[in-house]
Specification:
Elements lengths: L6 E7 L8 E10 L6 E12 L1 E6 L5 E5 L3 E5 L23 E6 L3 H4 L1 E10 L2 E11 L6 E9 L14 E3 L5 E5 L18 E5 L21 E4 L4 E6 L5 E5 L6 E4 L38 E3 L5 E6 L13 E5 L4 E8 L2 E8 L5 E2 L1 E4 L3 E4 L1
Antiparallel strand pairs: 1-2, 1-23, 2-3, 4-5, 5-6, 7-8, 8-9, 9-10, 11-12, 12-13, 13-14, 15-16, 16-17, 17-18, 19-20, 20-21, 21-22, 24-25
Length: 366
């Protein structure tokens, strides 16, 4: 069902921590009231198992991933297509599986998509980025090719990261988790653990990446010192923003820039699960970036989008939206001078917000 109001599309995770769940795509409509915006959720589609990522296709359709390893096209009316053929094998256990998906900026002419997943292989698994072409009949993925694989693979079912953002220059950013037990790797440049990488659409390395030609440093690395980033988006000015899960407390919003160190696990506003400091228990150190915003206690952030449309009123334009898995709400963060000035909680109690993205208007999936 479609609303006459402008919408924020939402993907609701019912029973978000259960081994399996049935989920729905929702549309959250904003009544056009300047003084007090009202948000309501509207079911668009049901019957999905652990939906994780969504890409917006022409004619109001959705391309959705399900973590066990399925990808489907969903019509604007909410009809679920059959699982697409051609999806590669995924390591679907724990936090792993088929995760994010985005459509190429020129999808209308090239039908290209990019998706990331936990890739099984020698030594365990790791996050991989693939490109493919959605067939004309929308029944299969064609020309599937992995263009990046996180190194090294390890035996872990945790902290894959796996958010994809296409930059304005056409390169791709991919967030990569620290794999949990390898958290110290986030401070080294000879692994991809706890990093954001930047690659070309064919998997090549941009010549202006910050660590190209730097000894043993992996050339795909853009920034480091990250824990487990599950939200990323381009700001209206084209800069990359992201958020990442802290441990017990200390979830962060960061603006990763070329070559910068974001500190994990040396600096953090969180603590070990069950209590106790991490490392020296410090929150800042020279040469390490401070977050733009952090949460204590953790909200378990997932998904991120900037609202660029003016259809929701001037007060909302430029707002940053972040989903909370832990407290089951959608946060609207109002910015002032590049900093967080105010947080408003929307859709409280509707279930954990899984991802955010942009369709015809700015939109989020919860």
């Amino acid at each position: 069902m479609r609303s006459n109001f402008p919408t924020i599309s939402c993907l609701r995770l019912w029973g978000r921590l259960a081994a399996s769940c049935t989920a729905a795509i929702l549309a959250a409509s904003l009544a056009p009231l300047a003084a007090a915006q009202q948000v309501r959720a509207q079911t668009v589609a049901t019957g999905l198992e652990h939906p994780w990522g969504v890409a917006f296709l022409p004619q109001g359709r959705f391309l959705v991933t399900e973590r066990p390893g399925r990808m489907r096209v969903i019509s604007a009316q909410g009809a679920l297509g059959a699982p697409l053929a051609g999806v590669p094998e995924v390591a679907a256990r724990g936090q792993g599986g088929l995760l994010d998906v985005v459509a190429d900026s020129a999808f209308a002419t090239n039908r290209t998509i990019y998706f990331c997943f936990s890739e099984p292989g020698s030594g365990g698994n790791s996050t991989a980025l693939a490109r493919a072409r959605l067939s004309t009949d929308e029944r299969r993925l064609e020309e599937v090719r992995v263009i990046f694989s996180q190194k090294p693979k390890v035996a872990s079912s945790l902290h894959f990261g796996c958010r994809i953002v296409e930059a304005r220059d056409g390169n791709l950013f991919l967030t990569l988790g620290d794999r949990f037990q390898r958290k110290d790797d986030a401070q080294t440049l000879d692994t991809h653990h706890g990093k954001i990488v930047r690659v070309q659409k064919d998997g090549g390395v941009p010549r202006d990446n910050p660590f190209v030609g730097r000894g043993s440093a992996l050339p795909e690395i853009w920034s480091y010192g990250h824990r487990n980033a599950q939200g990323a988006a381009l700001a209206p000015d084209g800069t990359l923003w992201m958020h990442e899960h802290g441990p017990q407390g200390g979830d962060e919003i960061n603006q990763p820039q070329a070559g910068r160190n974001h500190g994990w696990p040396v600096v953090t506003f969180g603590e070990n699960y069950g209590g106790g400091r991490i490392g020296d228990g410090i929150t800042q150190k020279q040469g390490m970036e401070q977050p733009l915003h952090y949460w204590v206690p953790s909200i378990a952030p997932s998904g991120m989008a900037f609202l660029t449309s003016d259809r929701y009123g001037e007060d909302w334009k430029g707002s940053l939206f972040v989903g909370s898995l832990k407290f089951a709400y959608l946060a609207r963060l109002q910015l002032a001078g590049g900093k967080m000035a105010r947080e408003e909680k929307l859709l409280e109690g509707w279930g954990g917000c899984a991802t955010c993205g942009r369709g015809r208007t700015a939109s989020c999936t919860c």
